[in-house]
Design brief:
Elements (H helix, E strand, L loop, with lengths): L16 E5 L23 E2 L2 E2 L4 E2 L9 E19 L10 E7 L7 H5 L4 E8 L5 E5 L5 E10 L3 E2 L1 E8 L11 E2 L8 E5 L23 E2 L9 E19 L10 E8 L2 E10 L5 E5 L5 E9 L3 E2 L1 E8 L1 H14 L2 H10 L4 H8 L12
Antiparallel strand pairs: 1-5, 2-3, 4-10, 5-8, 5-9, 5-11, 6-7, 6-9, 12-21, 13-15, 14-20, 15-18, 15-19, 15-21, 16-17, 16-19
Family: Belongs to the allantoicase family.
InterPro entries: Allantoicase (IPR005164), Allantoicase_dom (IPR015908), Galactose-bd-like_sf (IPR008979)
EC number: 3.5.3.4
């Protein structure tokens, strides 16, 4: 599977932050997670030389490496990393590696230095002016990543693609956005994504510009466009928000919603007229679903899709087990102790993962 189609867990757009770098003399570390593609203007010089849209360290005159630490905006399971050296030609690092850590709370850079860092990408060669992709095979949920370049140089972007895994301790499972990317929902199909990714529909926050939403090509046939979302877990949708903000001459004329349980689809919202540049809200009623399909007629753009409701008992079980199963061993044990189990019970249960039912104290 091409992991680059998965959400970028580190992007500034979803709340990522570059917490620390040991050096950033030529270009700021914050550029690493900018959502935009890197740019370049030749012969554009500042006080420290050519201005680069990336992170660039000084030339080393002694042995060593340079590093930057990123807090993921969406903690989750990392499936792949792209180290993009766009426009760095004579000044890119020849090697890099990437590590991940899973830490509760809001640790400082000094505290993160002592975290349990696990290898995600081994020491690997890099090419200049290239998107260097690396597959990651680690099933655990991470909150931070550390990029190390050997020995020095410039990296334009760091993309950390994967699957968000929500922490249920910070959610109201009886009232939440079942379609939110940060809660574990995912786009599992769409008819067209010519202008922009349908994953934007379920991303955090409001769209700032038209490009932050999902927009299809203009249709020249009798069909319509659609997108399907696998919800964070099974739940009953009670309110839908279809947001066409910023889409003025290219908003859909109408939209409908259908829900699925197993192989059966049924109507949640009949075909309904939409207005351009508007947040539409609709009250819904119906049985619990695991997937929702939005059809737009005939084509056009949508900024956000929100599906508010409550998880079923089965949905709550699935969401909590997903979190527990992806935590590193020490964090999983700590979570079970927090829930009332003894340290011995917690350690014994963690050794039996994956869980299919939420463990309970006996």
């Amino acid at each position: 599977m091409d992991f680059t189609g998965m959400p970028d867990l580190a992007s500034r757009r979803v709340g990522g932050s570059v917490l620390w770098a040991n050096d950033e003399l030529f270009a700021e570390r914050e550029n690493l997670i900018r959502p935009q593609e890197p740019g370049f203007q030749p012969a554009t010089f500042g006080h420290k030389g050519q201005i680069y849209d990336g992170w660039e360290t000084r030339r080393r005159r002694e042995p060593g490496t340079d590093s930057a630490v990123v807090r993921l905006g969406l903690p989750g399971v990392v499936r792949g990393v792209v180290v993009d050296t766009a426009y760095f030609t004579g000044n890119y690092p020849p090697f890099c590696w990437v590590e991940g850590a899973s830490v509760d709370g809001y640790p400082s850079p000094a505290e993160l230095a002592g975290a349990d860092w696990r290898p995600l990408v081994p020491r690997s060669p890099l090419l200049g002016n290239t998107k260097n992709p690396f597959d990651v095979d680690d099933p655990h949920r991470f909150t931070h990543v550390r990029l190390t370049i050997d020995p020095d140089g410039g990296v334009a972007r760091l993309r950390v693609h994967g699957t968000p895994v929500a922490d249920p301790r910070f959610l109201d499972l009886a009232s939440l956005d079942l379609a939110a990317l940060e809660h574990g929902a995912a786009v599992d199909g769409c008819s067209n994504m010519f202008y922009s990714s349908p994953a934007n529909l379920i991303s955090p926050g409001f769209a700032q510009v038209m490009g932050d939403g999902w927009e299809t090509a203009r249709r020249r046939d009798e069909d319509n466009d659609w997108v399907s979302v696998a919800l964070a877990a099974e739940g009953a949708v009670r309110m839908a928000e279809l947001d066409t903000s910023h889409f003025k001459g290219n908003a859909p004329g109408w939209a409908s919603l259908a829900g699925r349980v197993g192989d059966e689809w049924f109507e949640l919202l009949p075909r309904t007229r939409l207005q351009p540049d508007t947040r539409h809200r609709f009250r819904l009623a119906g049985p619990a679903v695991t997937h929702v399909r939005m059809d737009v007629y005939p084509d056009g753009g949508m900024a956000r899709l929100r599906l508010h409701g409550a998880l079923t008992e089965a949905g709550q079980n699935d969401l909590v087990c997903r979190w527990l199963n992806t935590l590193p061993e020490n964090q999983a044990e700590a979570a079970l102790v927090e829930a009332g189990l003894s340290q011995e019970e917690a350690a014994g249960l963690v050794a039996t993962r994956p869980f299919t039912e939420i463990p309970s104290a006996h």
